[in-house]
Specification:
The protein has 275 residues and is of the alpha/beta class. It has a single domain, classed as 3-Layer(aba) Sandwich (Rossmann fold), CATH 3.40.50. Helices cover 40% and strands 24% of the residues. It is built from twelve helices and eight strands. Helix 7 crosses helix 9. The protein is globular and about 60 Å long. Bound molecules: S-adenosylmethionine (SAM). S-adenosylmethionine binds next to helix 1, helix 5 and strand 2.
Amino acid sequence: MNNTQQIEYWNGAVGERWANFQPQLDAAMAAITPRLLSFAAPASGERVLDVGCGCGTTTALLAQHVGPTGSVTGVDISEPMLKVARSRGIAANFLNADAAVHRFKPTHDLVFSRFGVMFFSEPAAAFANLRSAARAHGRLSFVCWGPVTENLWATVPVDAARAFLPPDAPVDPYAPGPFAFADETRLVHLLEEAGWRQVEVVPLASFMHLGATLEAALAQSLRIGPLSRAVGQLDEATRARLTQSVRAALQSYLTGEGVALPARCWLVSARNPGS
Ligand SMILES: C[S@@+](CC[C@H](N)C(=O)[O-])C[C@H]1O[C@@H](n2cnc3c(N)ncnc32)[C@H](O)[C@@H]1O
């Protein structure tokens, strides 16, 4: 299995941006995170693996839930993000490793992830490897994105920018990336193929808070995600027109609590069968 491309991606400009803007990204996911935690229900004394832990925000929350008698390990391939995680004084271990192939001890009560499991080149094999990290009857709980068309936080800025960008190249909807598991039926099959049982996929309708003000939301949309790469390649005049178009599109989603766009996620759970 070869996750080399993703390892380069998350150690390059994207990983640096996530490391620099983690507070804003956490704020964007503020409505989703508590729903994931109550769904996963980490309990006192449990051993938890946080897959694709990034800058460690969920690792810290998990550590609070399991308390001093439990333990949490955050695993990620992104050194810039792990550097932030390690600097935060979180009561957890952080490991720089490819979760798809790393040989974990089969001791975890809970294998957990917030948007960190959609980037595997061979997802069934990767989920089988994650199952080998779970104890017998241990559980898997993660959140991933549902269909892109229902995730307006992703489509609205890109649609508003489209007239100023080169035509999109056709994309493989199953390629590693944020929307790799949009197809719920495929996701269930992948997890079952990996040996997980009692697979459940629960839809979660939520919001992404892109910023407390219109200008903050605009900056976030242009800094992170597909637009950030494209915008850097435009001349100044085109960039200004694109910016104005994205600003106008986001304005429709300005609420008393900032700019919030609809998000559609899957909350996913499964059990490792006994040996
Ligand atoms: C969308 S970010 C989410 C980060 C973090 N969970 C959060 O919610 O802030 C995806 C994360 O998955 C990590 N990742 C991608 N592929 C991975 C792999 N094969 N093994 C471990 N981590 C991986 C990336 O480096 C990145 O930190």
